[in-house]
Specification:
With 281 residues, the protein is an alpha+beta fold. 65% of the residues lie in helices and 12% in strands.
C-alpha cells in the first residue's frame, strides 16, 4: 500500500513539474519573440540612418571640394598679382575688389554648408518623430524615408482603399491621424499628397481613368487631414500621378501592388533655409 502511495506521489510531481516547465517555456518563447521583433526594428532603423548619413556626407564633401577649388584659385591669383611690378591706381582698386568678392564667396559656401547641415538635422528629427508615432515599422504597407533632402511617407492603397475606390478605409484613418500629429508639430513644412496607381486601365462611374482615380484618392486623404485632424488646407496640395511614376515594373502582380500607393511628401522649409543664408550674408 505504501508503495502505491509513493508511485502516485512521483507521478503527480512529474505532471505538476511538466505543467510548470511548459508554462515557463511559453513565457520564455514569448519574451524571445518580442526581443527578435525589437531587434529587427532597430536593425532597419540603423540601416535607414546609415543610408541618409552617406547621402549627407556626399553632399557636404561636394561643397568642400568646391570650397577648396575656390581657395586654390584665389591663391594662384594672389601669387600672380604679387609678381606684377607696376599697377595703376584704378587697376589696384579693381584687384582689391576682386579679392574681396572671392573672400565673400568663400564665406557664402561655408554658410551654405552650415544651412544644409541644419536642414538635414531637421529632416532626420522629422523622420524619427514619424517612425516613433506610427510605431510598427516592419509593416510593409508603410514606408518612411528621406530622398534627396525630402521626407516621404508611402502608404499602400491596400491599407487606404478598397480596390477601385477612393473612400479611405476606417482603420487607415488611425494611421493618418498619427502622421497628422507630427505634421501639426512642424507647421513650417508644406505637404503634398500624391496618388499613384498601376497601369491596369480603370474606368467606373464618373471616373475617367487611373489619373482621375489617383487624384480623387489624394484629395480624399487631404480632406481627412483637414477635416478630422485640423491641418490648415493652405499647407497642402493634392496631386494625381496615375501610373506615370511607378516604383517597380507593372509586368508582375508584386510590382503593380507596390505601385498602387499614396505618398505624403513633406516639403522642406526652403524659406527658412534661404533666410538663414541671407542673415549670414
Amino acid at each position: 500500500m505504501k508503495l502505491k502511495h509513493v508511485v502516485l506521489f512521483v507521478v503527480s510531481s512529474f505532471v505538476l513539474f511538466s505543467c510548470v516547465s511548459s508554462k515557463k517555456l511559453k513565457q520564455e518563447k514569448a519574451k524571445n519573440a518580442k526581443l527578435d521583433s525589437a531587434y529587427t526594428l532597430e536593425k532597419k532603423w540603423h540601416a535607414d540612418c546609415a543610408d541618409s548619413a552617406r547621402l549627407y556626407q556626399a553632399m557636404i564633401g561636394a561643397l568642400r571640394d568646391r570650397l577648396q577649388d575656390q581657395k586654390s584659385s584665389n591663391e594662384e591669383m594672389t601669387n600672380h598679382l604679387k609678381d606684377l611690378s607696376v599697377l595703376s591706381g584704378s587697376q589696384a582698386e579693381s584687384i582689391n575688389k576682386f579679392l574681396a568678392t572671392m573672400g565673400a564667396k568663400d564665406a557664402y559656401i561655408k554658410d551654405m554648408q552650415a544651412a544644409m547641415a541644419r536642414k538635414d538635422s531637421m529632416n532626420m528629427a522629422l523622420v524619427m518623430n514619424l517612425k516613433g508615432a506610427i510605431g510598427n515599422m516592419d509593416d510593409k504597407d508603410i514606408n518612411i524615408k528621406i530622398d534627396k533632402g525630402v521626407v516621404y511617407v508611402d502608404i499602400s492603397d491596400k491599407m487606404l482603399f478598397k480596390s477601385g475606390k477612393y473612400v479611405v478605409n476606417a482603420p487607415a484613418k488611425e494611421v493618418l491621424g498619427k502622421v497628422a500629429k507630427v505634421l501639426l508639430a512642424h507647421p513650417e513644412n508644406e505637404i503634398m499628397v500624391e496618388g499613384h496607381t498601376d497601369s491596369v486601365a480603370f474606368k467606373e462611374g464618373l471616373l475617367v481613368d487611373n489619373w482621375d482615380l489617383s487624384t480623387k484618392r489624394a484629395t480624399s486623404v487631404i480632406r481627412i487631414l483637414q477635416d478630422e485632424y485640423h491641418i490648415p488646407p493652405a499647407r497642402m496640395t493634392a496631386a494625381g500621378r496615375g501610373q506615370y511614376k511607378p516604383l517597380q515594373s507593372n509586368d508582375t502582380e508584386d510590382g503593380r501592388a507596390a505601385n498602387r500607393r499614396t505618398r505624403i511628401v513633406i516639403l522642406p522649409a526652403l524659406d527658412q533655409f534661404f533666410d538663414l543664408i541671407d542673415k549670414k550674408k
